[in-house]
Amino acid sequence: MSAAFTCSKTFSGYPCCHRQWRHPGHCRFVHGYSRSFTCWFGAANLDENGFVVDFSSLGSLESQLAAQFDHTFLVNADDPLLEQWQALHEQGALDLRVMDNVGMEASAQLVWDWANALLQGRDGGRTCCWKVEARENEKNAACYEAIPGWFQGSRAPGMG
Q: Which pLDDT score, from 0 to 100, does residue 4 have?
């Protein structure tokens, strides 16, 4: 069985900052973007409303995105200044989120994981998120693309 239907939803307006402390250039400095994420969904058959995914049912995913990326400061778990960032968080100067990797590629994978956890638990394999684009601005984006093994419409053309 292969998926015949896909759709996408963009979540935008998540201003946050981060730094890539290992980078030899200017990316090692704290800098920020208003991140956005586009999720592509697939299904072999539509729901009772004729949708792949009812966008109004994605509130919990949108809440996760806001909690992680809206007016937050993202740092890698191995950042050598982590103690200082934590102290600034405790003083109320920043809203710290510690991640394995703050990069856009890893952020795309994180959102893919969240979307698929939601869909698998709710739709039991009828739907999946097969691609996420994480965009830091109009010029730069990174994608993560994979089809979960549990998806009933796996090996779909145009999905992977």
A: 84
